[in-house]
């Protein structure tokens, strides 16, 4: 009598998503298990192409592990992603794992065409490449990361999640500039908006804080980091946002001017003898907070304000003034506001910015509780007093989780 053949154990379900955010000289990554949104590993490769490239990898499986760091030359994104794959493999989380369902890529600019997460093929790559003129700093790096990942795992679904997608719901009255229609259409000039994955996540998380469904809630989201943007979200749908054709428009940022009279450009060309490239650098890299006071770190600016530095005080006041204008404008756009949500590095951590931005808006139903506002926490929370008609919230953003969720949902729907 022969012994029965042992049963082959069932294959582990493919529930993991690797999220890649490829910059011009960096790759940020996270590996998540979408059964419970657990982070299995996180890391960053920076200074790609330099002698002092740095890879920091932190395994989180089983409650967290010791970070590992390499400082060595990493020539390009292909070498960077191979190094990431080796680090993941060392933790039993390699890219060849059958549990890996997909790789999700942050892509900054998707134009009008990409309104949802999209499985990447040659046609998608060509369109993202076609959009390089309106996102010259971001889309080329995103493409490099995608092509490298596709070469490493050509059999695996690769999904693009676009920063602009959440804002494609804006009505034409908000998205169009008041310039000649034919010229605008020919050159794809319109307001696209950015930070969309953050605005989507934070607006939905704010609704949860209020114990309501997203479609029941109107939220003004203030994503305040080195780059900064505001959005008006009605019932879970974006109806206006502050960034435009590029991330330059809107709020005062770390190094970007935000809103400026377009004639300033012509004036600098004619009177200052500056080239288009020089003005581009001025407005994108030498303006905003750093242009006003020499610092773009809000912590340093607040320290200088507390010491009586007038340049820092003026920079802070200009920053807050612009914030108030957008809060008021988007209150008018929405008609009814249920919450104002602060997020990203400054929004989550700079209590004086939140206090100053809301101060004086009591007639709009807005107020901040000083004690609640001063608490530092990684948790989403309400910082307005109980009597306030409109909630003011601090909601830590999680763009990587949002990308992973959108990626996994798309891949799962294709497999149903």
Give a topology summary:
Layout: E1 16-22, E2 27-33, E3 38-46, E4 54-59, E5 68-71, H1 77-90, E6 100-107, E7 118-119, H2 122-130, H3 139-152, E8 158-162, H4 172-175, H5 181-186, H6 196-209, E9 218-224, E10 228-234, E11 237-241, H7 263-270, H8 276-285, H9 288-293, H10 298-306, H11 310-334, E12 339-343, H12 344-349, H13 351-358, H14 370-374, E13 381-382, E14 391-394, H15 399-415
Parallel strand pairs: 1-6, 6-8, 9-12, 12-14
Antiparallel strand pairs: 1-2, 2-3, 3-4, 4-5, 7-8, 9-10, 10-11, 13-14
Looking at this protein, list some descriptive labels.
about 425 residues; alpha/beta; eight-stranded mixed sheet; six-stranded mixed sheet; 15 helices; 14 strands; about 20% strand; globular; disordered N terminus
């Amino acid at each position: 009598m022969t012994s029965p053949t042992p049963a082959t154990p069932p294959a582990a379900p493919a529930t993991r998503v690797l999220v890649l955010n490829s910059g011009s000289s960096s790759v940020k990554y996270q590996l998540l298990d979408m059964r419970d949104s657990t982070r299995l590993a996180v890391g960053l490769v920076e200074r790609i192409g330099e002698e002092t490239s740095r890879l920091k990898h932190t395994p989180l499986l089983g409650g967290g592990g010791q970070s590992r760091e390499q400082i060595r030359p990493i020539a390009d994104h292909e070498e960077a992603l191979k190094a990431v794959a080796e680090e993941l493999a060392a933790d039993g989380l390699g890219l060849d794992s059958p549990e890996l369902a997909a790789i999700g890529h942050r892509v900054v600019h998707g134009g009008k065409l990409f309104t949802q997460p999209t499985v990447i093929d040659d046609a998608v790559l060509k369109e993202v490449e076609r959009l390089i003129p309106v996102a010259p700093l971001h889309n080329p790096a995103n493409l490099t990361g995608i092509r490298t990942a596709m070469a490493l795992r050509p059999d695996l679904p690769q999904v693009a999640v676009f920063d602009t997608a959440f804002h494609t719901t804006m009505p034409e009255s908000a998205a169009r500039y008041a310039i000649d229609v034919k010229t605008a259409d020919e050159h794809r000039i319109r307001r696209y908006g950015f930070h969309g994955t953050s605005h989507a996540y934070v607006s939905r998380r704010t609704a949860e804080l209020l114990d309501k469904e997203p479609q029941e809630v109107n939220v003004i989201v203030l994503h305040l980091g080195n780059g900064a943007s505001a959005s008006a979200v009605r019932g879970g749908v974006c109806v206006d946002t502050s960034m435009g054709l590029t991330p330059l428009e809107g709020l005062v940022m770390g190094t970007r001017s935000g809103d400026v009279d377009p004639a300033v450009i012509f004036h600098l060309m004619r009177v200052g003898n500056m080239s288009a490239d020089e003005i581009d650098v001025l407005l994108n890299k030498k303006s905003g907070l750093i242009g006003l006071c020499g610092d773009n770190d809000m912590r340093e600016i607040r320290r200088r304000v507390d010491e009586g530095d007038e340049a820092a005080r003026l920079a802070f006041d200009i920053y807050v003034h612009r914030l108030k204008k957008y809060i008021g404008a988007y209150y008018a756009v929405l008609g009814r506001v249920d919450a104002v949500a602060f997020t990203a590095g400054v929004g989550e951590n700079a209590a004086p910015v939140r206090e100053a931005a809301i101060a004086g808006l009591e007639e709009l139903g807005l107020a901040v509780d000083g004690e609640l506002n001063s608490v530092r926490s990684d948790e989403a929370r309400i910082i307005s007093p109980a009597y306030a008609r409109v909630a003011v919230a601090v909601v830590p953003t999680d763009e990587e989780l949002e990308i992973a969720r959108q990626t996994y949902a798309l891949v799962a729907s294709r497999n149903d």
